[in-house]
Structure to design on (468 residues):
């Protein structure tokens, strides 16, 4: 269900790119200038805007396989690099071969996903390929040897900006990025088992991370080189629940480290400027680290819900100024939660660590990682028939970025990858408080009793009713 939810976050904008100028550059290549803007709406009704003014390779140098009227089928190898293109007639196959080989260092094909030609890399689909060789092998068949195309190979000059449409009414136009969130991105969709054995169960009874934010990306090229890129999220506000149910049959200590790939690949922006496709997608891994000790057989819920007003968090790069980070100025509010049996005694630390990794097609990847940790010390008092707890939190965030374009050799070590801590709160108090003892039966203990009962019946049947 979670994957289905993210699969719906597809922003498909069809560009009606207007060619406002055509000319031949100093290398003799035809150049088309595309200029304009358009709006798109994702499946949840969130609007985006795209503004562009780009000078790109024109003429027949870039061929769109998915949109071609003369291509009948495309086959590819496992990596999506070697292609077999079947044309509707021999003349079309011959013309295509001549066009590709005349400018073998500057010929490109796009598309392929229509026929299932997908990539095995992190890219959801190889949508831009540079042609190395074209061979007309049969009447209607052309075989291509290609390599992954780069945007700095097809875009000579210009700028492109993708941004959300700001709205004054709360989260109206914001993208929701999250883990175990409901449709409003503000509450848990279901309980999640973190760990379970015969003696102990740890459940995320009310656990979720829901980040509302505006997507932001801007790129600029000059003379077939990237000279400015910015990418990340703006106006981030996170609703979070970190409420854990402990169910123990005995004295118990545990350390666990578990990672989920919540969203492997989900496209949020997909459009074309002329024949050149551009995708922006994300994936969300989530790590849970827990370390705790339980002293008695008991059951209790401990945790807190939070509202984290983060702000802007994105990176910018140019070859002259290198990396720059726009840091947030976060503010945190918490509402504590405690419920359980008076004999419950436990202490520990639980961290829920989501990473929102945004990929801009062969240009840049950015990763924003939050690490909220809860420290708890809960102890019951049977005489007073109450359960008390002290709760603290620690919060940090890091941003990482990696350029996917070719950059000057002397900048590779300095600029290829970048990381920086955005903030670190240190350990801070949430509160100390007590609640009345509450008895409720342990699901874990009931299940163990059921298994024991089944075992006794099995022994009885074996002894009295089974004969040789």
């Amino acid at each position: 269900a979670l994957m289905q939810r993210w699969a719906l976050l597809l922003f498909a904008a069809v560009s009606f790119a207007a060619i406002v100028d055509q000319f031949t550059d100093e290398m003799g290549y035809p150049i088309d200038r595309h200029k304009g803007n358009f709006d798109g709406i994702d499946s949840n009704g969130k609007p985006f805007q795209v503004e562009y003014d780009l000078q790109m390779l024109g003429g027949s140098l870039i061929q769109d396989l998915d949109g071609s009227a003369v291509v009948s089928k495309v086959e590819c190898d496992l990596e999506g690099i070697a292609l077999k293109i079947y044309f509707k007639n021999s003349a079309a196959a011959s013309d295509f071969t001549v066009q590709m080989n005349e400018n073998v260092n500057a010929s490109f094909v796009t598309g392929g996903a229509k026929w299932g030609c997908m990539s095995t890399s992190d890219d959801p689909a190889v949508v831009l390929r540079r042609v190395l060789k074209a061979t007309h092998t049969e009447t209607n068949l052309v075989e291509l040897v290609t390599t992954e195309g780069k945007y700095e190979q097809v875009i000579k000059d210009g700028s492109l900006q993708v941004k959300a449409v700001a709205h004054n009414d709360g989260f109206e136009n914001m993208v929701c990025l999250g883990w175990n969130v409901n449709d409003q991105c503000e509450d848990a969709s279901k309980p999640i088992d973190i760990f379970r054995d015969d003696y102990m169960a740890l459940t995320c009874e009310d656990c979720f991370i829901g980040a509302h934010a505006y997507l932001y990306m801007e790129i600029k090229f000059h003379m077939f080189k990237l000279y400015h890129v910015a990418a990340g999220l703006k106006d981030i506000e996170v609703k979070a629940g970190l409420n854990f149910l402990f169910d123990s049959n005995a004295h118990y200590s545990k350390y666990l480290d578990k990672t989920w790939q919540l969203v492997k690949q989900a496209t949020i922006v997909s459009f074309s400027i002329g024949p050149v496709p551009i995708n922006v997608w994300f994936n969300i891994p989530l790590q849970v680290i827990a370390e705790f000790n339980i002293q008695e057989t008991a059951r209790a819920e401990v945790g807190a819900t939070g509202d984290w007003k983060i702000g802007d968090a994105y990176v910018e790069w140019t070859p002259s100024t290198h990396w720059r980070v726009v840091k947030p100025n976060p503010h945190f509010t918490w509402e504590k939660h405690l419920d359980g049996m008076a004999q419950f005694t436990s202490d520990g630390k639980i961290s829920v660590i989501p990473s929102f990794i945004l990929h801009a097609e062969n240009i840049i990847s950015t990763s924003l990682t939050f690490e909220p940790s809860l420290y708890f010390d809960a102890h019951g008092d049977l005489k007073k028939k109450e359960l008390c707890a002290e709760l603290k939190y620690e919060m940090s965030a890091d941003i990482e970025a990696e350029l996917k374009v070719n950059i000057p050799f002397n900048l590779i070590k300095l600029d290829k990858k970048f990381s920086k801590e955005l903030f670190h709160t240190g350990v801070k108090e949430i509160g100390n408080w007590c609640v009345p003892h509450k008895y409720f039966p342990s699901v874990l203990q009931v299940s163990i009793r059921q298994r024991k009962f089944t075992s006794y019946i099995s022994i009885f049947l074996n002894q009295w009713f089974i004969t040789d």
User: Anything to note?
Assistant: The first strand starts at residue 18 and ends at 24. The CA atoms of residues 227 and 252 lie 57 Å apart. The longest helix spans residues 443-464. The chain is about 10% helix and 60% strand.
